[in-house]
């Protein structure tokens, strides 16, 4: 199929099919569109410049345009060329304009099932929203981000990384700001199953530690945007020292990702003060949990022994309790019981 050809679009109430001139269906161009096209554009926009960012901004503003415009028409609308549009499609992970249109159509099919292209899942909360509305928006945002991250995670890569970490001499983990919490959490988990590791949340200490790594070490940099300068510096320093480097971020084309040997990519909108932005830690935890469990599988006897030992060590510091049934638990959560507890606390 020629790149400048214009596939026929058949739109039904629920489904969209794109057919090329030779009659093959959209599955001929199948790509992993689990991560929404608009989501992908928003994540990669900060790394784009010139004509590429111009096309991206146009498509974020008019996400259905590819279903209505040929490649030449889109080029005219954005003041670029057909060749530039093709390069843009390749930049965001598609082989050309036709597969890109398939991705947009797939997104539309999913969002149509949710009643609109832009649903409450990604909207910003407002000052007049009820607590129930805020909770619903948060739940939907978190659920979508987790589902999209699960779809985009490279399981073969994750298994490979788990094996490398299991055989490594030491693991360094870098994170600044909000990602510092995640770095510490990952360090705690790996250490409990017998992995020698250290987390760095301050650039001077991080650079010092990074410079001491070697070819038997693994260095992991965590940044949702992939643009945190200190994390980039620490990961690069570890790479220069010989360590295998891993980036955990939301943007596969970010500076952090491009600085690493391996990339773990999550999926969450970067929208300041919007619910999707609050999902960043949830999807990072999902990726970290998966890595942790795959790593435990690499040496299951040691992992279970380590976890049992740590559980026994802290057991004396926990108050004894009795098991309660689900019915008893629900009874304790009834409005009447909650009100009674509030009165007792008053």
Describe this structure in words.
Keywords: DNA-binding, Transcription, Transcription regulation. InterPro entries: Homeodomain-like_sf, HTH_RpiR, RpiR-like, RpiR-like_SIS, SIS_dom, SIS_dom_sf, WH-like_DNA-bd_sf. It comes from Renibacterium salmoninarum (strain ATCC 33209 / DSM 20767 / JCM 11484 / NBRC 15589 / NCIMB 2235). This protein has helices spanning 37-44, 50-61, 65-68, 71-78, 82-91, 97-113, 131-152, 155-167, 178-192, 203-211, 229-240, 255-259, 275-278, 280-298, 300-314, 326-332, 335-345; strands at 8-11, 16-19, 170-175, 197-200, 217-222, 244-249, 262-265. With 346 residues, it is α/β, with parallel strands linked by helices. The protein has two domains: 8-113, Arc Repressor Mutant, subunit A (Orthogonal Bundle); 152-308, 3-Layer(aba) Sandwich (Rossmann fold), CATH 3.40.50. The protein has a five-stranded parallel β-sheet, with helices on both faces. Strand 5 (217-222), helix 11 and strand 6 form a beta-alpha-beta unit. Helix 2 packs across helix 5, helix 7 (131-152) crosses helix 14 (280-298) and helix 10 (203-211) packs parallel to helix 11 (229-240).
């Amino acid at each position: 199929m020629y790149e400048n050809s214009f596939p026929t679009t058949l739109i039904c109430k629920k489904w969209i099919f794109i057919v090329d001139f030779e009659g093959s269906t959209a599955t001929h161009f199948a790509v992993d569109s689990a991560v929404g096209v608009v989501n992908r554009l928003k994540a990669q926009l900060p790394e784009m410049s010139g004509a590429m960012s111009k096309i991206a901004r146009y498509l974020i503003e008019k996400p259905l345009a590819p279903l209505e415009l040929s490649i030449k028409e889109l080029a005219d609308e954005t003041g670029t060329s057909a060749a530039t549009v093709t390069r843009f499609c390749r930049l965001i992970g598609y082989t050309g304009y036709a597969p890109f249109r398939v991705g947009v159509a797939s997104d539309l099919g999913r969002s149509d099932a949710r009643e609109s292209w832009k649903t409450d899942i990604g909207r910003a909360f407002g000052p007049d929203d009820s607590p129930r509305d805020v909770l619903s928006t948060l739940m939907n945002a978190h659920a979508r981000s987790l589902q999209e991250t699960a779809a985009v995670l490279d399981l073969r890569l994750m298994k490979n990384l788990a094996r490398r970490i299991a055989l490594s001499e030491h693991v360094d983990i870098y994170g600044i700001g909000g990602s510092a919490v995640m770095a510490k959490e990952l360090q705690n988990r790996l250490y409990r199953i017998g992995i020698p590791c250290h987390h760095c949340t301050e650039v001077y200490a991080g650079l010092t530690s990074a410079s001491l790594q070697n070819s038997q070490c693994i260095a992991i940099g965590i940044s949702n945007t992939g643009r945190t300068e200190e994390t980039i510096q620490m990961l690069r320093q570890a790479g220069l020292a010989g360590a295998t480097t891993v980036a955990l971020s939301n943007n596969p084309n970010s500076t952090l990702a491009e600085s690493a040997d391996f990339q773990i990519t999550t999926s969450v909108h970067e929208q300041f003060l919007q619910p999707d932005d609050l999902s960043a830690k949830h999807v990072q935890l999902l990726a970290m949990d998966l890595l942790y469990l795959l790593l435990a599988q690499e040496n299951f006897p040691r992992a279970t022994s380590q976890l049992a030992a740590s559980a026994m060590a802290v057991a004396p510091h926990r108050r004894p309790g009795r098991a309660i049934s689900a019915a008893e638990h629900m009874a304790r959560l009834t409005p009447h019981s909650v009100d009674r507890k509030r009165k007792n606390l008053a």
